[in-house]
Predict the 3D structure of the following.
Amino acid sequence: MNAKTTPRVDIIPEECKGCQLCVGECPKNVIKMSEKINQFGYNYAEYTGEGCIGCGMCFYACPEPGTITVYKK
């Protein structure tokens, strides 16, 4: 699979409040908490870069609208 057909997750660091709900819901464990902090002082969730299956569980778990976008093939 190439970049256009591989599912992936985009997370906006500035919108993430660090609740970790997406981390707990990901069946492939491809989301982790960053050691960096955003402008509001939260450690934010980030996609590890590979292994996403495009299930959308992270999207549905996130309480912050628009923070997570899942791209499927």
User: Anything to note?
Assistant: The chain has one domain: 8-71. The longest strand covers residues 31-37. Strands lie at 8-11, 31-37, 43-47, 68-71. The chain has two helices and four strands.
